[in-house]
């Protein structure tokens, strides 16, 4: 273990001797986040105009309209369908929500009605709006189910009256809770876009960093470091273990410093720490494995860096690192399932945006570990010690 640690500390010192390492690991992710998500962030919450169309005009749909109009982080206006479509085509609104005819009937029949949400491709908070719609519908669903329990044999007007009485009994408390959450979290909505972009740039620069760092294996072999190490009592296991541990520590140092810096600079809330620890560790192993695999097919550190960037940049685009994955066509969303960045982004969004715990990200963690196992198996099998 002592030899592994000696090799590890030696390689960490070599990496941090270069000032360029600090710029790539820490400065660039924060600068990119500020440039692409930080500027104008204070006004982001008031700039999204959403048209709301109620084609059902029933007690349930009107209650849903009332709930959505209370969302202070959006400028939601109830208008007619034709006017909404015209405004959306003119890009005078960011999107339109349509409650279809038969909405209440579907609810009372135990079905899940579909509320349409149309928007332009540049709406970065589309996922948050969709989540708001789903939450509002879930609250109405609870009141409909309660109405069925109170009046099990009622239909039509009787069931509607039961729903209205249930809504009157519960609505005040529900609306009060929503109002408090919105009024005390105006900065949270502003930071949503920053957090998502920050995570994307952290993943991008983390993978680039570890791909370049794993190229130290090629450099060490070229200048004879491994030859000298093998002439000592250090085994191949000690050498590879020392390098792997150094890569893992370098990655964790980068992530930890960025997490702390982003918290104080952007107010980023990273969520459940245990879930983040497992998710980040799986991502680090995946990135290290990718770097080792690339190192197994090239001959120089320069080739390693070039090949790593060629692989990482397009897969980051595909995996939703640069923009929300919802903005790309369906067939590209299916292809994204086969790149690790997609699963990393999904895991981070689950923890940071939806308050997820370790159980909620176990799927993403498991898939990232699967990628890591494949990459490492290929990479380690191609390592040449001579």
Question: In words, what does this structure look like?
Answer:
The protein is mainly α and 386 residues long. The chain has two domains: 232 residues; 137 residues, 3-Layer(aba) Sandwich (D-Maltodextrin-Binding Protein, domain 2), CATH 3.40.190. Helix content is 70%, strand content 5%. The chain is built from 16 helices and four strands. A four-stranded mixed β-sheet has the order 2-1-3-4, with helices on both faces. Helix 3 packs antiparallel against helix 6, helix 8 packs parallel to helix 12 and helix 11 crosses helix 12. It is elongated and about 90 Å long.
Which SSEs are present, and which pair or pack?
Blueprint: H1 2-16, H2 19-38, E1 49-54, H3 59-69, E2 75-78, H4 81-89, E3 95-99, H5 103-108, E4 116-119, H6 126-150, H7 156-183, H8 186-214, H9 216-222, H10 225-230, H11 236-265, H12 273-295, H13 301-318, H14 330-336, H15 340-352, H16 358-381
Query: What is the arithmetic mean of pLDDT?
Result: 80
Number of domains: 2
Approximately how much beta-strand content do the residues carry?
under 5%
From the spread of the alpha carbons, the general shape counts as elongated
The order of strands across the largest sheet is: 2-1-3-4
N-to-C series of helices and strands: HHEHEHEHEHHHHHHHHHHH
Computed Rg: 26 Å
Q: How many alpha or pi helices?
A: 16
| Class computed from helices, strands and strand pairing | mainly alpha
Largest beta sheet, briefly? 4 strands, mixed
The separation of the N and C termini measures: 23 Å
Ranges with pLDDT <50 over ≥5 residues?
39-46, 172-191
- The helix content, as a percent range, equals over 70%
Number of strands: 4
